[in-house]
Amino acid sequence: MVSTDLANTGTTDAGCSPTAYFTQVRDEQHDALSLYTLVQQGFALDQVKAMVASSELYSSADLLFRITGQHSAVVQPQSHGAEGARLSAQQSAVAFQFAKALEHAMAVFGGQRPAELWLASPCRFLAGNVPLDMIDNALGFHAVEVYLTRVEHGVYQ
């Protein structure tokens, strides 16, 4: 659960917004091209694990498996350089989608706990789909983001 002061900023208990685990800065400070470049380089596996661990829902949903296609005990990252293990560009893009969706839902619903409850529940306005189950697909992620933006602006239909 987020503290009251963090709920308004869209950050987790650790004081880090979900996307900041990968970008090291607030998401608004990145344009699409710089995010693309970060994703192409691949996120560090440790950063992805930290983002997943920051969310009770994501930890319980075996999100690392959804991102990598492998269970955490057997994850085979792209490389093992001096920086440590990194995910592929595709895996990094999916990790970013999960982080962005959680961050956006936190901003819309006022905190991490209500955001996680919404992400885990069927949504009538998303054809009864569970938002969490849509995020790993680019079109599903887009539909979730469009819906959250509509809620932000008070447009529910």
Q: Can you characterise this structure?
A:
- With 157 residues, the chain is mainly alpha-helical.
- It has one domain (4-152).
- The chain has 10 helices and 2 strands, in the order ααααααββαααα.
- The protein has a two-stranded antiparallel ribbon with strand order 1-2.
- Strand 1 and strand 2 (84-86) form a beta hairpin.
- Residues 1-13 have low confidence and may be disordered.
Low-confidence stretches: 1-13
Strand order of the largest sheet: 1-2
Q: How many beta strands in the DSSP annotation?
A: 2
**Helix/strand order, N-terminal first:** HHHHHHEEHHHH
Number of helical elements: 10
Please give the largest β-sheet.
Answer: 2 strands, antiparallel
Distance between the termini: 29 Å
Measured by DSSP, the beta-strand proportion falls in: under 5%
Helix- and strand-based class? Answer: mainly alpha
